[in-house]
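Journal club prep — side note

Before the paper discussion, L.F. wants everyone to see what a predicted structure for a comparable chain looks like in token form. Sequence:
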Amino acid sequence: MPVNNRTYFASWVLLTFVALAVYKAEDSYGAKVISVLFALSGLYIGAKLIPRGRVSPEGRAVFITGCDTGFGNLLARRLDSVGFTVLAGCYLPDGTGACNLVQETSSRLTIVPCDVTSDDSVQRAKEIIKKELKTQGKELLAVVNNAGIWSPGHIEWVSLNRYKNIAEVNLYGLIRVTRAMLPLIRKSKGRVVNVASISGLWSLPSNSPYCMTKYAVECFSDTLRYEMSPWGVKVAIVEPGEYGKLTNIGMNSKEVIIATANALWEDMSADVQQDYGREYFDAQADIYNQSREECWDDVTPVIDAMFDAVTSRSPKHRYLVGELWTYFSKFKFTLLPSWMTDGVFKQLLDGFPKPAARREKFE
């Protein structure tokens, strides 16, 4: 069940009702305190339903990275449909995704070639954007750092080069683009929207290459928000959960998962292969594919959050997007002691094949 305005409204009504019921049920100090806590919780949730107004698209442009597929592609279409000038950054400007964008949107959308891992490419993109803004008489309202990739694997399985490649896109690419566009954003008193993940809130086994970059994006975004406050620039973080299937981060097909797993196995040293064994490795690879199958098909809530971050007059600092489990997990993995959360993972791994070297030790 994705969390949306209906969920907030139902929660607000329920908490308000409980607060009144507790307040009237018992005339004691404890009951009063409990009712006040419920009332405050209801007010907090109710505040999320208050309209915050929209920025007019007139005279404003938005630059989005990673528009070849996934979130970036869909956000570009949404912003174009309401009248914004969209500068769609594409890694493959002549690829299918970019060509479809041009064909299926208005003349307000411009494809901007952009490889976020290249200083030269980002600087060329900046010059194209500056030229487009000047020619059309627009200002840059927002930069949306959406480009990202994913790769799984235990720490011993992932090569240093793979770690570097993921960080180059997810972290350094985001920093590279942000630094290049900040003068334009400061001039317009606009906003920076960074797409992080629930994986930036807690760490998951066999996901360190991705998690660590998203943790860093959270840190970078918070620091940027503090530093940009005197300029009137807003910074928002979008944290999708369980939406990897239809994005371009690398989980969009079973074939990609299998190819990634095979590459991990080939990259391992012989002694690591021997210690873990193929049975354990294949079981772990099945988890990767199962995770993909459990992702939500409808990414509309994510696009809604990104759209709000770009167009709201008062965007939120964070947009955690997912099902109710996502919100519960945020509490569970960020506030509970590690011995409790470690116990959760031990239970999940109950019955899971043990590494070959562990089995041999006890046989």
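L.F.'s comment for the group: Residues 5-47 form one domain. Keep this in mind when we get to the figures.
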